[in-house]
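Replying to the earlier thread about multi-chain prediction with a worked example.

Input:
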Amino acid sequence: MAYQTHEYIAVGMLFLFAALVATLILIATHLLGPKIKDPAKMRPYECGPEPQGTPRHQFSVHFYIIAIFFILFDIEAVFMYPWAVMFKKFLILQGFVIILDMVVFIGILAVGFIYIWKKKALEWDL
Amino acid sequence: MTLTILLVTLLKVLVLSFVVINVVPLMTWVERRGSAFIQGRIGPNRVGPLGLFQPIADGIKFIMKEDTYYPHVDKILFIIAPALALIPAILAFAAIPFGPQFTLWGYTTALQIADINIGVIYVLAIASLSIYGILLGGWASNNKYSFLGSVRSSAQMISYEVALGLSIVGLLMIYETTSLKDMVLAQSVPLWGVLPKWGIFTQPVAFLLFWICIFAETNRLPFDLPEGETELVAGYHTEYSGMKFALFFMSEYMAMFTGSALAATLFLGGWAFPPGIQEWILNFGLSRNLFAFICFINFMIKVAFFLWCFVWVRWTFPRFRYDQLMKLGWKFMIPVALLNILATGFVIYGA
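Result:
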């Protein structure tokens, strides 16, 4: 029960099934259907006009900043899960200390959060 | 005995995935009929009774269409990206409990593909993997619209994932488990004598946050910025055609199903009936398998309600602007989710 091997065997079966479905659909749509080449059709779609420049161009640095914030905050969220599951048991054993732990933890998180807020890192309408 | 267990597991995998995959065509029909109903149109009503065979006709049309390869795409990524979107969408519902235990060929097991003890974390983790399909699809297309759509989509999904992850912490504190099966059992007891102890009554704020985040995670209106037609043509799947295009839609609808199923499990008591009704049904002396089937129907009704909400909201609200979307995600959802955790802690301490 500890390692739940047979549960993950079921997940493995589902994975094989999903991979099979996806592969079969991709092969079927490749084999069926017409193949008509046309120079105008083969261009990148940009609503008709000739494509200008390359799509692999610079884009807003904001997306990178959001990605970095995501990594930070999502790890914080993962730290809260074990705390939350053990919350009631520890509350009986130790009392108020467990809430204090989380108040400190969220407090440190909130300081960083207020900092990025004040730095206008979350603004998009610059 | 081992062979029986394997056979029953295989049967569960096949039957439950058959059910979930068939939600997709049914849902496209509901969406089109529902939008027609809300907008005062007729909607598809020519193919079969009430247009019910329309999804089959659509499927045949999709698969007979040309599967185009462009010289400008990154070929390998372009081909596997739709599969990368679909596989996590199918895998994610493995931990969702569809019903209580049933017995088949002398082997008793729950109506659930895998009773994983970290079920909630598993579903959230696997569901968030489908972002790779979207991101790689948009990147490999080598098209400005696709690229912008995929970048927007990933920024939106990761922003709301933080709030999604934080919103369920309160539930974990109350029910003291991450296993979805135990979560359902913990919810099927009375609360203050009258209400069932469902998540929606114990954690109403978390429910609102969770439900908004599910809309953002599945890229549905009012959060469908990645494929905002007026700005980006079709977003990350602009260059896709035929069944590859349909695979992206299948994964979106499967993600809707998984989100609805997770919401029903966490907040509406899953397959379990409210406490009084549960005993009333058991009094009829039904066999265990028949009871499991009734609970399965009960679960699917709850899921269907949430799925209808997707259609309902889509045709009721206009689309957000991108800065409004990010503002809502970071400046409202995350602080409220954090406050909700602290408030839950103090309420449990006070009780």
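Residues 44 and 53 of chain A are 11 Å apart (CA to CA).

Feel free to reuse this layout for your own posts.
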